[in-house]
């Protein structure tokens, strides 16, 4: 190990991260009662500009009225290039900050963006006397953010996770795709021709570099790397493939833009029983090897050594964290009040209709 020790951030299970539009209060109760490891209430891209002020009010009310469970509530604010951002932070954190675990910052481009949010949060927390310190989730989704990812990942002790925002990243880098996540048939390699002149094409993963780079920047700073959205929520097999390739690279979780993806993410980012069993066998074999004064031995015909202990420990630790998580089965309603709706009161609407009809 280096003399520089990387401390891991606040441990938090983050296999699934469910996106819930702040302008759709009808989804709030289900999200609060659901099984997502983290839920983020979105004030950014799922909310149309005209709906932003109302979405902010909905989110504040829902945070205060519903039981969101322990350590799993995040709010995605608008980007620092918009005037919505300061009100998102000031209004939401002042009025509901004691119950917020994380703030998600989109389109972060430089470490100074994090500095600005950190400063605002610090002032609000101090002024309001909050006991909790709100953590930060950062979306890397621009070429600038990817270029500065190492500095961003080290920008504040509040940071907990880096997320790959694949849709905006595609737009920012002008990638030729309109899909949200997923592979692209044009990103392929052709094999050489065989004796009959046949060639095969193999799809590559056009997001490999970005995700791998994010994983390194995150892990080098003790943060969680999280893969972003997969837009086709009717394609479970597609989601599965994208999630697994992210897990293999070191991501701890993936976004869910639909509740069905929560179940998939929770399963795919938990070590399987077979993986855990194998990891335990490695630990046992290495314990015996060390007792016998050996640094490396063969298990099932393959070499294992002291690095194998560290690999196996990652899986066993994760399995323990997953096992310790209590399922969300509790009733969620705390207050009788309903979350604010966008709609005008029915009476007024009816009166308006009558007035129109009279004209
Ligand atoms: C998420 O915000 C994305 O742009 O994919
Ligand atoms: Mg985005």
Could you characterize what this model shows?
The structure is a single chain. The protein is of the alpha/beta class. It has two domains: 254 residues, Alpha-Beta Barrel (TIM Barrel); 64 residues, no CATH class. It has 13 helices and twelve strands. The strands form three sheets. The protein has an eight-stranded parallel barrel with strand order 1-2-3-4-5-6-9-10, surrounded by four helices. It has a two-stranded antiparallel sheet with strand order 7-8. The N and C termini lie far apart (80 Å). The site of glyoxylic acid (GLV) has 10 residues, from helix 7.
Brief write-up:
This protein has 359 residues and is an alpha/beta fold.
Task: Present the secondary structure layout.
Elements (H helix, E strand, L loop, with lengths): L15 E6 L6 H6 L4 E5 L9 H14 L7 E4 L7 H13 L5 E4 L5 H18 L6 E6 L2 H5 L1 H5 L5 E6 L1 H8 L14 E3 L10 E3 L4 H12 L4 E4 L8 H14 L3 E4 L2 H10 L4 H19 L5 E3 L2 E3 L1 H19 L21 H13 L1
Helix pairs in contact: 2-3, 3-4, 9-10, 11-12
Helix proportion range: 40-55%
Order of strands side by side in the largest beta sheet?
1-2-3-4-5-6-9-10
**What percent strand?**
5-15%
Architecture per CATH nomenclature, i.e. the level-2 architecture of the largest domain: Alpha-Beta Barrel
How would you state the average pLDDT, rounded? 92
Strand-and-helix sequence, N→C?
EHEHEHEHEHHEHEEHEHEHHEEHH
Q: Figure out the total of helices.
A: 13
What is the distance, rounded to the nearest whole angstrom, between the alpha carbons of the first and last residues? 80 Å
- Strand count: 12
The CATH class label of the largest domain is Alpha Beta
User: What name is given to the CATH topology of the largest domain?
Assistant: TIM Barrel
């Amino acid at each position: 190990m280096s003399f520089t020790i990387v401390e891991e951030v606040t441990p938090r299970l983050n296999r699934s991260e469910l996106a819930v539009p702040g302008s759709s209060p009808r989804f709030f109760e289900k999200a609060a009662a659901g099984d997502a490891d983290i839920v983020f209430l979105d004030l950014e891209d799922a909310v149309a500009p005209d709906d932003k002020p109302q979405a902010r009010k909905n989110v504040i009310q829902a945070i205060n009225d519903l039981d969101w469970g322990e350590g799993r509530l995040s709010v995605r604010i608008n980007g620092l290039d918009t005037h919505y951002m300061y009100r998102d932070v000031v209004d939401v954190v002042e009025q509901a900050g004691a119950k917020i675990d994380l703030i998600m910052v989109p389109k972060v481009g430089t470490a100074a963006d994090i500095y600005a949010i950190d400063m605002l949060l610090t002032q609000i927390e101090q002024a309001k006397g909050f006991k909790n310190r709100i953590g930060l989730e950062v979306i890397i989704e621009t070429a600038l953010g990817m270029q500065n990812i190492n500095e961003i990942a080290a920008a504040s002790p509040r940071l907990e996770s880096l997320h790959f925002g694949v849709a905006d990243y595609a737009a920012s880098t002008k990638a030729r795709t309109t899909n949200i996540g997923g592979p692209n048939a044009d990103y392929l390699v052709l094999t050489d021709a065989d004796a009959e002149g046949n060639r095969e094409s193999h799809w590559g993963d056009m997001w490999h570099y970005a995700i791998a780079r994010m994983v390194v920047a995150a892990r080098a700073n003790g943060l969680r790397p999280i893969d972003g959205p997969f837009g086709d929520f009717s394609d479970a097999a597609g989601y599965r493939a994208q999630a697994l390739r992210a897990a293999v690279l070191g991501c701890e979780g993936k976004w869910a833009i639909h509740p069905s993806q929560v179940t998939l993410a929770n399963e795919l980012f938990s070590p399987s029983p077979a993986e855990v069993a194998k990891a335990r066998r490695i630990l046992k074999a290495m314990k015996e090897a060390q007792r016998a004064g050996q640094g490396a031995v063969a298990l099932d015909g393959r070499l294992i050594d002291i690095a194998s202990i560290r690999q196996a420990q990652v899986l066993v630790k994760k399995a323990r964290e997953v096992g310790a998580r209590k399922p969300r089965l509790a009733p969620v309603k705390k207050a009788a009040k309903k979350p604010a709706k966008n709609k005008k009161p029915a009476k007024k609407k009816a009166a308006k209709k009558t007035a129109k009809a009279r004209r």
